[in-house]
Amino acid sequence: MTTPPSSTKRWQELLRSLRTWLTPGMGVKRWIIVIFLGTTFLAVGFGILILDFYRNAPDAWWLPALSAASLRFLPRILRVVIFGGIGLGVVAFGILQLNRALIQPFLRPGAGVTETLRQHRQRERGPRIVAIGGGHGLAALLRGLKRYSNNITAIVTVADDGGSSGRLRRDFGILPPGDIRNCLAALSDDEALLGQLFQYRLPDTQGGLEGHSFGNLFITALAEVTGSFEAAVAESGRVLAVRGRVLPSTLHDVHLVADVILPNTMAEVRVEGESQIPKSQGRVRHVWLEPNNPPAFPQAIQAILAADLILIGPGSLFTSLLPNILVSDLSEAVRASRALKLYICNVATELGETDGFTCGDHIRTLEAHTGSRLFDIAIVNNRHMGSLPPDVDWVVLDPDLDEDYPVYPADLIDELQPWRHDSQKLAQVTMDLYQERTGPLVQ
Fold first, then answer.
1. Which candidate, 179, 216, 223, places its Cα nearest to that of 198?
2. Peptide bond just before 291 cis, omega within 30 deg
């Protein structure tokens, strides 16, 4: 008689689950050993009691049945193996079911206990990653990285002065929450619901809230309740159950200013405000922060100095990336860090900001504003397939760029939005480069 397929599948799943429990680093085997020792002492005590009762009990009709149940007709070693095996199986089954009952309220639908625990342990031991940037590019990177580590710190710019963030900044005097909101949503453990709620933008109304995102309003309200912007961001991270943390590059009220060369002329104008720079339709020559040289947020400096991997970008070169690097304390900390430092070049140019830029133009602009190279390797997209929006071009790799800079080309584009990075592809490339330096992550 053959075993039914459903029964075979259940046994295979049980064996696979038991193997997973015994995987190194799960933090389970030590407690199994403790339980086993306790069970052994309990069994010894109970066995002594049974043996004493068996030897001293008066003759009764049930003694032969007890003798048969104790398998005394078998060799002693065989009895040890049989009863020991039954005991281990029962204990393992009880532990598995107890853990399932305790962890069930915290599992996602369809997720297994052992696989959830294994992934959690693996991410806990993941590298300490610092990602510096802003906008949709940084959020896409974080969305992929959270599969590999819980020790992620995103450092974002607070120079935004447009849209919902700009209005809240002017009306309430707080730092702009927009980029921070995007990163919190990307790192959320429940991005499907809470993340979407944080990103939800209110429709046109008559109440003056049109255009605001719920996350921006939530962070603003928390800043009023807690009394500080950084506390509001931390509490928002707890609400979203983020894997990591999001920090502002500085707590000072900074504004981005640019010298822009107007098109078809040699005239140069000064443009104030991050949201106004792309609208100038000129070539950005230089950007800086006002007030100049703001102090960095201390926790951001600590995260950089303790990092194993530092990622610079992706994000808008002049309006997302450089506003972070222009905080001199932060850029000095990047130089001093012994972490592997990767620069992630944008996939496509940005209208009014990096029109016609190659990968080399991005790197040289970054160096011109910081005074020296901040990275060990530049990651560049080398797949140029798909339709781009009007007036947007691919950021191509310069023919001789690898003679001056270590460059790693790879396919990084999103199949549906090829002008943006694919989260999983980008995270995989960064982790591959990290593991080439340090060795594979412990599974």
1. 216
2. yes
Q: Which domains does the chain have, with CATH numbers?
A: 125-438 (3.40.50.10680)
Task: Name the phi and psi angles at 193, rounded to 5.
Answer: -115, -65
CA 213 distance to own-chain centroid: 22
In whole angstroms, what is the distance from residue 103 CA to residue 112 CA?
A: 10
- pLDDT per position as a tens digit, 233-247: 888 888 887 888 999
Q: What's the CA gap between 391 and 237, in Å, rounded? A: 37
Q: Three-class SS of residue 342? A: strand
Q: Per-residue pLDDT tens for 86-102?
A: 877 887 777 777 776 76
Which distant-in-sequence residues (6+ apart) come within 8 Å of 260 by Cβ?
268, 269, 270, 271, 277, 280, 282, 283, 284, 285
Peptide bond into 248 cis (omega under 30): no
Phi, psi of 419 (to 5 degrees): -85, 0
For the CA atoms of 343, 346, 349, 350, the dihedral, rounded to the nearest 10 degrees, stands at: -90
Burial class (CB in 10 A: 0-12, 13-18, 19+), 171: exposed
| 3-state SS class at 218 | helix
Residue with the two structure tokens 């947020």: 297
Task: Specify the 3-state DSSP secondary structure of 261.
Answer: strand
Nearest to 233 by CA among 252, 211, 212, 215: 215
> Residue 270: helix, strand or coil by DSSP?
strand
Residues 6+ apart with CB under 8 A from 77: none
Q: Which amino acid is at 88?
A: L
Looking at residue 148, its amino acid is: Y
Q: Letter for the amino acid at 258?
A: A
Are the C-beta atoms of 337 and 310 separated by less than 8 Å?
A: yes
Helices (H), 22-73: 29-56, 63-69
Amino acid at 227: G
- Per residue in 163-199, pLDDT (tens digit) is 777 788 887 888 888 888 888 888 887 666 767 777 7
* Maximum separation of any 2 CA atoms in the chain, in Å: 115
Q: Alpha helices of 188-342 — where are they, by DSSP H?
A: 196-199, 214-226, 229-240, 298-305, 322-325, 328-336
> Mind listing the pLDDT tens digit for each residue in 289-344?
998 889 999 999 999 999 999 999 898 999 999 999 999 999 999 999 999 999 99
- Judged by DSSP in three states, 311 sits in strand
